[in-house]
Amino acid sequence: MKLLISNDDGVFALGIRTLANTLAQAGHEVTVVCPDRERSATGHGLTLHQPIRAEIVESIFHPQIKAWACDGTPSDCVKLALWALLDTPPDLVLSGINHGANLGTEILYSGTVSAAMEGVIEGIPAIAFSLASHTVTEFQPAANFAQTLVAKLTEKPLTDLMLLNVNIPPVGSEEICGVKLTRQGVRRYVDVFNKRIDPRGKTYYWLTGEVLEDVEPPETLELPKNVPIDVHAIRDNYISITPLQYNLTYSKGLSQLSSLDF
Known about the structure:
Blueprint: E1 2-6, H1 14-25, E2 29-35, E3 54-56, E4 66-70, H2 74-85, E5 92-99, H3 111-121, E6 126-131, H4 140-155, E7 163-168, E8 178-181, E9 186-190, E10 193-197, E11 203-207, E12 210-215, H5 230-235, E13 238-244, H6 251-257
Parallel strand pairs: 1-2, 1-5, 2-4, 5-6, 6-7, 8-13
Antiparallel strand pairs: 3-4, 7-13, 9-12, 10-11
């Protein structure tokens, strides 16, 4: 299968190297186009007011992998790859393996998910992979599952265009309890900003915060209640797979607005 891989942790991140090398060794045709530095939490930002540069990268990845480092955002990288760097479209766009979870409402900020979603916007199915820890650095179990999932999609391609948001618990392969199909949860944070004083006595703020709770989405979204939410699956050491799409239209809101007299 022809695969395009990007990320938001940058070209030197262990996660993308483990993912790309594992899939190349499995016989897939792998191209990497990713940021030249960390671009986490950039969402779906695009570079519009300055040029985008991409340089060929050597000696980082498996010798069969073609790789570029781009000075743009994760979405820039995928868009540039699809429209300028690749001769033909890939079968799948992959993103990750991110160092840290992308669960619940975090996906709205995630550069990892946005890179994958850029593929879906261009009509190519995509998968975002995240290791649900900022401290664990063993990415091979996640890469092994990525290889398994890509193999399954090779045999049985997705019939609908979608993004699979995959989170892998930060444990050894033998401790993973299985795989669950999930729906998006909600993550709420506390102490989002720290107020500090710089050496010149001026105030500045540092964005931080810790997860306060993982909660059910609002009932007004009318999601299936018999499907577990992603944050709970990871908590129980299951791999979480949540199918996503980019259409954010709120159908119940259309019904409510139709009663207004314009």
